[in-house]
Design a protein that fits this description.
The protein has 717 residues and is an alpha/beta fold. The protein is built from 32 helices and 22 strands. It is 52% helix and 13% strand. 51% of the residues are buried.
């Protein structure tokens, strides 16, 4: 069959095949009506048929390209994966993808993937099935196998082909963490054979397949060899067993046994060195079949979908203002972190403070983050220098007329924030958006002294800025749609996950955390040890216990926030007196080494003196068991989440769950706070809250939203 006849037959399928005068066949992915190429089951079926015909072409080589700008193939269809509920179907789906990609590997001539953009998951596995790979040096290029983040493993051959290409240790590093590589790092790792400017990707790919046709694939490729010591270690069964054993121990410590996908991926990667390719692929498909139907996978896919929904929607229904220059008011650790984030995304930043020492601290915070990135080889020293050069520290407000957005990040005191917003408004243009990085203060109150309150919004970053993905975008009572849209779009540009929330005390995340943290205090006051409370919640899946979290935040800061919550919500969220007593005894948390824990250089130990301090005047009850600790803390959060939905603090349960995962580290494998609550059921949640209210007080009394959900049998998520 001729290439023209094949092109006619594949019209509308998202695939095309042509043959040029040099004998290079071009296989093009261009899914109609989609911004990126996604590998659906239907597309894989078309691909198999097309490749069967391609075998008969008088070609010297084949190049796989994308018709989408700055995107190769973004991966498999997540919706199709989510819809699978049994192991047999999941295994068959994986086998179908493997067969399609094996058809590429079995073509009677060299093949090359021309990658100019996103190449993830199934797209990466397709590229690995090719003989060669060329990538562009564009910043949009991203290569990786992130399937473990969805609770599955690379099932179209990734766990078999990548280790054979780059070695065991490098493959473990990429697959088990779901890491992605830019073009430069992909070349260094040996994932791609050439790195060229975007304009030359297709030309270089064609050159490579023609050279491979003439002289062999090994001659055309420039494989980067691994170090001698690593080759010796990986080159023997005992060495590989040692590497796999160490990786398994590390995984157990990191996942706590809550995430089965990395553990099974580790097994499958090991198979690449114990089995022939066909047998390894069969085992890979079987392991995919085990993972896809699990609750963990469904929960992680739910978070992924919510994240994608955030990326697709705008924040305020208006056109956002483009931000090329920005200002940060207030240096120090938080201000320096925000300045680093802006500068790292190509935005020129003026960072202002009233104290020279604070500016030094802010610049140091930015430099520290960049230094860590250089040490981890995520950046070059030159790239870090260019980023720092975008940050201009200043003690005055000169040069602020040209900024498009100013972020206030001064101390959490209303009168100070009001003064800063009023001052900055007088020095910026009339179009400049002013955002407050407040964790609990009212945006409406912060903007009271502004002449144009419609351009004042909230942009609450979570600490540390370089690690926490959430940004709460807060709409004040007079905030314009344009201001909300601008802050939302900027958060997305900075790589953060924005969630729009209403201007209520504590907004969303901190409000839900408040009763959780308060209940941890009540548990200690009632007889539980600090260690027992924190360990119970860590075993549940939280990244750290609530009492250690209070130490990290700062007990003085937490006491101030608790007073705000108490004023707004009364006894339901707790009495700030407990935290005030802590702060009054010069226990500020990690910042001065004394809090619920004594923080040493190497480790932190619970301080038994704190338990005595909190229990003064209390009759000591018996220490609760771990299930009660978890139940009391989690049910308090669930009830407050329901109250937030009833007050329209956030759009829906999906956004709430996403915010709790991204802002607090609520265990992703549980799918979010309300998704976890749904596993209990509204009726059970209400019954337990009412029982706890009878035994421990009215703070456990369920709110109207939960009561209605239980009465009507309505799902919680």
């Amino acid at each position: 069959m001729s290439a023209n006849a094949i092109a006619e037959r594949t019209e509308g399928t998202g695939l095309g095949l042509t043959l040029d005068e040099r004998g290079v066949a071009w296989l093009t992915f261009d899914v109609p009506g989609a911004k990126v190429n996604i590998l659906s089951l239907a597309l894989l079926e078309h691909l198999e048929g097309l490749l069967a015909s391609a075998r008969a072409l008088p070609a010297r080589g084949l190049v796989v390209v994308s018709g989408k700008e700055r995107s190769f193939i973004a991966g498999a269809d997540v919706d199709e994966i989510a819809a699978v509920s049994d192991s047999a179907t999941a295994r068959a789906l994986a086998a179908r993808g493997q067969a399609a990609f094996q058809a590429i590997a079995d073509l009677p001539y060299p093949t090359c993937a021309a990658i100019d953009g996103v190449c993830l998951g199934g797209g990466m596995e397709l590229a690995l099935a090719c003989s060669l790979r060329v990538a562009s040096d564009a910043p949009e290029v991203s290569l990786g196998l992130p399937e473990v983040r969805l609770g599955i493993l690379p099932g179209f051959g990734g766990t078999q082909r990548l280790p054979r290409l780059i070695g065991l240790t490098a493959a473990l590093d990429l697959i088990l963490a779901g890491r992605t590589l830019d073009g430069r790092r992909a070349l260094k790792a040996g994932v791609v054979d050439r790195l060229v400017p975007s304009a030359y990707v297709r030309r270089e790919a064609a050159t490579l397949v023609l050279a491979a046709a003439a002289d062999g694939v090994a001659t055309a490729a420039k494989r980067r060899g691994r170090g001698l010591s690593m080759r010796l270690l990986e080159g023997t069964p005992p060495g590989r067993s040692f590497i796999l054993s160490q990786a398994r121990h590390k995984l157990a410590a990191e996942t706590g046994g809550h995430y089965p996908a990395p553990e099974l991926a580790l097994t499958s990667i090991g198979n690449a060195f114990r089995m022939e390719l066909a047998a390894g692929l069969a085992e890979e498909a079987r392991l995919v079949g085990e993972l896809v139907p699990t609750a963990v996978s469904k929960n992680l896919i739910g978070i992924f979908r919510a994240t994608q929904a955030v990326k697709k929607r705008g924040g305020g229904g208006a056109h956002p203002r483009e931000v090329g220059r920005a200002a940060v008011l207030g240096a120090g650790t938080m201000g320096g972190g925000i300045a680093w984030l802006l500068a790292s995304n190509g935005i020129a930043v003026r960072m202002k403070d009233v104290r020279r020492e604070a500016l030094v601290s802010g610049m140091g915070a930015a430099a520290s983050i960049l230094g860590k990135a250089v040490a981890r080889r995520r950046l070059t020293a030159r790239e870090a220098e260019k980023t720092m050069a975008r940050i201009s520290p200043t003690l005055d407000l000169r040069g602020f007329r040209t900024v498009d957005l100013a972020i206030e990040a001064v101390v959490e005191r209303l009168e100070i924030k009001q003064a800063v917003v009023a001052e900055i408004e007088s020095r910026v243009s009339d179009e400049c958006v002013i955002a407050s990085n407040t964790s609990s203060l009212s945006i409406a109150r912060i903007g009271e002294r502004a002449r144009h309150r419609e351009r004042v919004a909230g942009m609450h970053f979570f600490n540390p800025v370089d690690r926490m993905p959430l940004v709460e975008v807060i709409r004040g009572d007079r905030t314009s749609d344009e201001a909300v849209a601008t802050v939302y779009a900027l958060a997305r540009r900075l790589g953060k996950t924005p969630v729009v929330v209403a201007d209520r005390p504590g907004f969303l995340v901190n409000r839900i955390l408040a009763p959780y943290l308060n209940e941890a205090l009540e548990l200690v006051r009632g007889g539980a040890s600090i260690a027992a409370v924190d360990q119970a919640l860590v075993r549940f899946g939280m990244p750290m216990g609530p009492l250690l979290l209070l130490d990290q935040v700062g007990i003085d800061v937490a006491a101030h926030a608790a007073a705000t919550f108490h004023e707004a919500f009364g006894e339901r969220v707790g009495d700030p007196a407990l935290l005030r007593a802590m702060a009054g005894s010069n226990r500020l948390g990690k910042k001065n080494g004394r809090g619920f824990y004594l923080h040493g250089r190497k480790r932190s130990e619970p301080d038994p003196e704190v338990e005595r301090l909190l229990r003064q005047g209390q009759g000591l009850a018996s220490s609760p068991l771990e299930p009660e600790i978890v139940e009391r803390c989690l049910l308090r959060m669930i009830d407050e989440a329901g109250r937030c939905l009833a007050e329209n603090v956030v759009a829906d349960a999906a956004d709430l769950d996403l915010a709790m995962v991204m802002g607090t580290g609520f265990p992703p494998f549980r799918g979010g706070l309300l998704r976890y609550a749904e596993t209990l059921g509204a009726k059970r949640v209400v019954e337990r809250l009412e029982a706890l209210a009878a035994s421990h007080g009215p703070r456990f009394a369920p709110g109207a939203w939960l009561l209605e959900a239980a009465r009507e049998g309505r799902p919680l998520a």
